[in-house]
Description:
Layout: H1 11-62, E1 71-72, E2 80-82, E3 85-87, E4 110-113, E5 118-123, E6 134-138, E7 141-144
Antiparallel strand pairs: 1-4, 2-3, 4-5, 5-6, 6-7
Amino acid sequence: MKNMNKKGFTLIELLVVIAIIGLLSTLAVVALGNARQKARDARRLSDLKQLQTALELYYTDQTAYPSGSAVTLGDSTHACLNASGFGSTGCANPYMGKVPSDPLTAQSYTYTAATSSYTVTATLETTVNGLSGGVTLSPSGIADQPI
């Protein structure tokens, strides 16, 4: 009887390894998708806080908030904020040189001014610090939109 040295892997061993690698890569893609959503939400909340600071500086100097109703922030006609209010790119002496837009092109930040107040609405993809879904920025801060 001959002594046979087996070198290599069996077909079953290779299939098991391929299945494990496939499972691990699927889990990594799912986790990466959740991380992207959370990153976009963190950016949204950061954008809202920056908008709040710029709007309060504007109010301090102008004793009113910029006029506007259902304004889409960050579009071509509302790209910066100066003493004249929201304007196109290249505002002189801006409070905010580049007004942010939502990280997803399918969504937007919407600004509406009242007599001595304003609201900016945005939509979160996940839950962040107890906030989820639609959120509203006002002079008093960021809160869930009332249902």
